């Protein structure tokens, strides 16, 4: 039995929903040849967001950032402390500075993976 997963619904996939288009147990007539190779809704997965560093807590590795909506993690505008991915990220952060940064949800922990002055 073959299952064909639809790849055309980028938005649904982005929400973590996989859609089984055909789950028949009959014959599937081989490759259809019309698989779209140009997803129309791919978001730049490394997009940076604007923010302002409000606080840097080096001992705990936390950076407080005031930011707008972060689409990739579904977060509305807020000021919140996030974990720095590593020492390099922590070192980039300076209180009061405007930055571009990338926040990702890594195993349930919101983590700043990239941060640079803008
Ligand atoms: Cu938040």
Overview of the structural elements:
9% of the residues lie in helices and 38% in strands. With 118 residues, the chain is mostly beta strands. It folds into two domains: 1-32, no CATH class; 49-117, OB fold (Dihydrolipoamide Acetyltransferase, E2P), CATH 2.40.50.320. The strands form two sheets. Strands 3-4-5-7-6 form a five-stranded mixed beta barrel. It has a two-stranded antiparallel sheet with strand order 1-2. The chain is globular and about 25 Å long. The N and C termini lie far apart (53 Å). The structure holds copper (II) ion.
Short description:
By secondary structure, the chain is mainly beta. The chain contains 2 helices and 7 strands; from the N terminus they run E-H-E-E-E-E-H-E-E.
Q: How far is the first residue's CA from the last residue's CA? A: 53 Å
What do the pLDDT scores average to?
A: 78
Biggest sheet architecture: 5 strands, mixed, barrel
Q: Helix share of residues?
A: under 10%
As a percent range, the share of strand residues is: 35-45%
Instruction: Report the CATH superfamily of the largest domain.
Output: Copper binding periplasmic protein CusF
Q: What is the fold-level CATH name, i.e. the topology of the largest domain?
A: OB fold (Dihydrolipoamide Acetyltransferase, E2P)
Strand line-up in the sheet with most strands: 3-4-5-7-6
Low-confidence stretches: 4-24
Query: What series of H and E elements makes up the topology?
Result: EHEEEEHEE
Please provide the count of β strands: 7
């Amino acid at each position: 039995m073959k299952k064909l997963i639809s790849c055309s619904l980028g938005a649904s996939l982005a929400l973590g929903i996989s859609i089984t288009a055909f789950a028949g147990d009959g014959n599937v007539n081989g490759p259809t040849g019309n698989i779209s190779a140009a997803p129309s809704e791919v978001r730049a997965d490394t997009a940076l967001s604007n923010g302002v560093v409000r606080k840097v807590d080096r001992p705990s590795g936390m950076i407080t950032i005031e930011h707008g909506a972060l689409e990739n993690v579904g977060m509305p505008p807020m000021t919140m402390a996030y974990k720095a991915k590593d020492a390099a990220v922590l070192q980039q952060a300076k209180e009061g500075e405007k930055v571009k940064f990338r926040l990702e949800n890594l195993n349930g922990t919101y983590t700043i993976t990239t941060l640079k002055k803008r």
